[in-house]
Design brief:
Blueprint: E1 2-4, H1 17-29, E2 42-44, H2 47-52
Parallel strand pairs: 1-2
Length: 62
Protein backbone atom coordinates (compact mmCIF):
# COMPACT_ATOMS: atom_id res chain seq x y z
CA UNK A 1 0.00 0.00 0.00
CA UNK A 2 1.31 3.45 -0.92
CA UNK A 3 -0.06 6.64 0.61
CA UNK A 4 -0.01 9.72 -1.57
CA UNK A 5 -1.14 13.33 -1.38
CA UNK A 6 -1.68 15.38 -4.51
CA UNK A 7 -0.60 18.55 -2.73
CA UNK A 8 -2.94 20.97 -4.47
CA UNK A 9 -2.88 24.24 -2.59
CA UNK A 10 -0.97 22.98 0.45
CA UNK A 11 1.69 25.44 1.64
CA UNK A 12 4.03 22.56 2.56
CA UNK A 13 3.85 20.75 -0.78
CA UNK A 14 7.54 21.31 -1.56
CA UNK A 15 8.57 19.62 1.71
CA UNK A 16 6.07 16.77 1.62
CA UNK A 17 7.43 13.31 0.85
CA UNK A 18 3.95 11.98 0.07
CA UNK A 19 3.45 14.66 -2.57
CA UNK A 20 6.88 13.93 -4.00
CA UNK A 21 5.94 10.25 -4.20
CA UNK A 22 2.71 11.10 -6.03
CA UNK A 23 4.53 13.28 -8.55
CA UNK A 24 7.07 10.52 -9.17
CA UNK A 25 4.31 7.91 -9.59
CA UNK A 26 2.38 10.22 -11.92
CA UNK A 27 5.41 10.78 -14.14
CA UNK A 28 6.35 7.08 -14.28
CA UNK A 29 2.80 5.89 -14.96
CA UNK A 30 1.86 8.74 -17.32
CA UNK A 31 -1.40 9.05 -15.39
CA UNK A 32 -2.79 12.35 -14.22
CA UNK A 33 -4.99 10.56 -11.71
CA UNK A 34 -5.44 7.07 -10.32
CA UNK A 35 -8.23 5.05 -8.80
CA UNK A 36 -7.77 4.55 -5.08
CA UNK A 37 -8.05 1.13 -3.51
CA UNK A 38 -6.83 -2.44 -3.35
CA UNK A 39 -6.85 -2.87 -7.13
CA UNK A 40 -4.11 -0.27 -7.55
CA UNK A 41 -2.45 -0.18 -4.13
CA UNK A 42 -2.76 3.60 -4.25
CA UNK A 43 -4.33 5.42 -1.31
CA UNK A 44 -4.69 9.16 -0.90
CA UNK A 45 -4.62 11.13 2.31
CA UNK A 46 -6.91 14.14 2.40
CA UNK A 47 -4.83 17.29 2.21
CA UNK A 48 -7.28 19.20 4.41
CA UNK A 49 -7.07 16.51 7.10
CA UNK A 50 -3.29 16.88 7.09
CA UNK A 51 -3.53 20.68 7.44
CA UNK A 52 -6.21 20.52 10.14
CA UNK A 53 -4.11 18.09 12.20
CA UNK A 54 -1.22 20.58 12.09
CA UNK A 55 0.53 18.48 9.41
CA UNK A 56 0.91 15.49 11.75
CA UNK A 57 -0.58 13.23 9.06
CA UNK A 58 2.08 14.25 6.55
CA UNK A 59 5.60 13.03 6.01
CA UNK A 60 8.01 15.92 5.68
CA UNK A 61 11.69 16.53 5.20
CA UNK A 62 13.45 17.98 8.22
Amino acid sequence: MSLYCKGRGCPRTKDCIRNEGWEDYRKRSHKEDEQEGFATGVWFIKEQDCIESNYQEGAFYD
